[in-house]
Write a structure and sequence with these properties.
Elements lengths: L1 H4 L2 H18 L5 H26 L1 H7 L5 H15 L2 H16 L4 H24 L4 H25 L14 H35 L1 H38 L2 H37 L3 H8 L2 H24 L2 H20 L1 H8 L4 H34 L10
Helix pairs in contact: 2-3, 2-6, 2-9, 2-10, 3-5, 3-6, 4-5, 5-8, 6-8, 7-8, 9-10, 9-14, 9-16, 10-11, 10-12, 10-13, 11-12, 11-13, 12-16, 13-16, 14-16
Length: about 400
C-alpha cells in the first residue's frame, strides 16, 4: 500500500533531475548531484515517517486490517516489523528509479530489479525451510534483497558521477524541495482519491456476492496482462515529454505528445485483441468455475471498452506528468471519485436490481461503473491536455502549468 501511495516520488525525481541537467548544460556544476541528493533526502524522511509507525504499531495495523486470532496476528506482526525495516531501501529505490529515468537510463533499474529478485528467490527457501524462520524468513529474504538492490543503485550512481555523497551533508535547495513537494504531494493526493474510488467499487462488488468478487479478481489479472503492453509506453511518454519541457522545445513536445496518444490508442486496441484471443485459455487457468468463465466471456466487449479508455487515460496522464500538469491529473481523480460516490449513493435502487442476478449481469454493472469512472477522469484530463497543447503550439511558448 505504501509503495503504491508514494510511487509519485519516482515522477518527482525525474522532474528535478531533468531540470538539473539543463542547469548543468548552462554551466552550473554538480546540479544533478544536488538534485539526486534532494530526492534521496526526501526518500529517507518518508522512510522514517512510514517505517517507524509500521514497526511500533504493527499489531494495531493488523487489527485495523480485520485480522483476528492470536496466531494470525502474530504472523502479521512478525512480517510487518521486519518489512518496516526495509522502508529506507524501498523509498531509496523509488527515488533512484526516478533519478535514473531522468538521466534516460532505464537499464540500470532493470538490472537492479533482476538482481534483487534473484537474491530474494535464493534467500527465501534458506530462511523458510533450512533455518526454519517461517513467515519471518520470507520477510527477511525480501528485506535483504531490497537493500541489495538499493546499494547497487547507489554504487552505480557514484560510479556514473550522478551523485556525490558530500552533497548529502548540505540541505537541499529550496527550488528542489518546492519541485519535489509540488509534484509528489499532488500526485500522492491523486493516488489516495483513486484508491478510495477503487475501494468503493470493491465494496459494491462484495455486496453482489462471492462469485462476483472472484470474477472481478480474474478480470484484474486479465487487465494486468493488457497493462503489461502499455506500461512501457507510459514510462517512455513521461521521460520524453519531461526532457522536451526541460529544454523548452515546445513544438517538438507537442508533436511527440500527439504521436504518443496515437500509440496509446493503438496499444489499447492491441491489448484488447490479445485478451479476446487468449481469454478461452487464460480464464480457465485463473478460475475453473464455468459460471465465472461464462460471466467474463459475455462481458468481453465492455471489458475491452474499459481497457481502451484506461490505456488512453494512462498514456495521457503520463504525458501530462512530463508537462507538469499535476493539478489537472488531481482534478481528474477527484471528478472520478465524485462520479463513483454519486453512482453508489443510488445503491439502494441499483443494488435492488443487481443482487441475486447472474455473474454476467453483475459484472456488467461493475464494468459500467468502472468505465464511467475512467471516462469521467479522461474527459477532465483531456480537456486540460488539449488546452495545453494549443498553448504549446507557438514556438517558444512558456513552460509549466500556471
Amino acid at each position: 500500500f505504501f509503495f503504491f501511495l508514494f510511487y509519485p516520488l519516482v515522477t518527482a525525481s525525474v522532474v528535478i533531475v531533468n531540470e538539473a541537467q539543463v542547469e548543468e548544460r548552462a554551466g552550473e556544476e554538480r546540479a544533478v548531484s544536488r538534485a539526486v541528493s534532494a530526492s534521496v533526502w526526501t526518500a529517507m524522511i518518508l522512510s522514517v515517517l512510514v517505517g517507524v509507525p509500521m514497526f511500533v504499531y504493527a499489531e494495531k495495523l493488523a487489527w485495523l486490517m480485520g485480522l483476528r486470532g492470536a496466531e494470525v496476528i502474530g504472523y502479521c506482526v512478525e512480517y510487518t516489523k521486519v518489512r518496516a525495516l526495509s522502508a529506507p531501501a524501498v523509498f531509496f529505490f523509488l527515488a533512484a528509479n526516478g533519478c535514473y529515468r531522468g538521466m534516460k537510463d532505464t537499464r540500470t533499474p532493470l538490472i537492479s530489479s533482476i538482481m534483487s529478485n534473484a537474491v530474494n528467490l535464493a534467500l527465501n527457501p534458506v530462511f523458510v525451510w533450512v533455518i526454519g524462520w517461517g513467515v519471518g524468513g520470507v520477510a527477511w529474504g525480501t528485506t535483504i534483497a531490497q537493500y541489495f538492490s538499493a546499494f547497487y543503485l547507489l554504487a552505480r550512481m557514484i560510479q556514473l558521477k550522478m551523485f556525490d555523497p558530500r552533497d548529502m551533508l548540505r540541505p537541499p535547495s529550496k527550488k528542489n524541495l518546492v519541485m519535489l513537494g509540488e509534484s509528489c504531494g499532488t500526485l500522492i493526493l491523486r493516488q489516495s482519491f483513486d484508491r478510495i474510488s477503487i475501494n468503493l467499487l470493491t465494496i459494491f462488488t462484495v455486496n453482489l456476492g462471492n462469485a462476483h468478487v472472484a470474477a472481478l479478481e480474474v478480470i484484474k489479472r486479465i487487465w494486468q496482462l493488457g497493462s503489461s503492453f502499455t506500461w512501457p509506453v507510459c514510462i517512455a511518454s513521461s521521460i520524453l515529454v519531461t526532457d522536451f519541457v526541460s529544454k523548452g522545445e515546445w513544438a517538438s513536445m507537442r508533436g511527440i505528445a500527439i504521436r504518443l496518444v496515437q500509440v496509446g490508442c493503438a496499444m489499447g486496441l492491441f491489448s484488447c485483441a490479445v485478451i479476446c484471443l487468449t481469454s478461452p485459455f487464460i480464464i480457465p487457468m485463473l478460475s475453473p468455475s464455468p459460471e465465472i468463465f461464462e460471466g467474463i466471456t459475455h462481458n468481453l466487449l465492455p471489458l475491452c471498452v474499459a481497457i481502451i479508455s484506461g490505456t488512453l487515460l494512462d498514456v495521457t496522464e503520463s504525458i501530462q506528468l512530463g508537462m507538469r500538469q499535476y493539478k489537472s491529473i488531481l482534478l481528474g481523480s477527484i471528478a472520478g471519485m465524485i462520479f463513483m460516490s454519486a453512482a453508489l449513493l443510488l445503491k439502494n435502487q441499483f443494488m435492488a436490481a443487481a443482487v441475486g442476478v447472474s455473474v454476467a449481469a453483475g459484472l456488467r454493472s461493475v464494468l459500467i461503473l468502472y468505465w464511467g469512472f475512467l471516462i469521467t477522469r479522461l474527459v477532465v484530463v483531456m480537456t486540460f491536455f488539449v488546452r495545453r497543447l494549443r498553448e504549446a503550439a507557438p514556438a517558444g511558448a512558456a513552460g509549466g502549468e500556471k
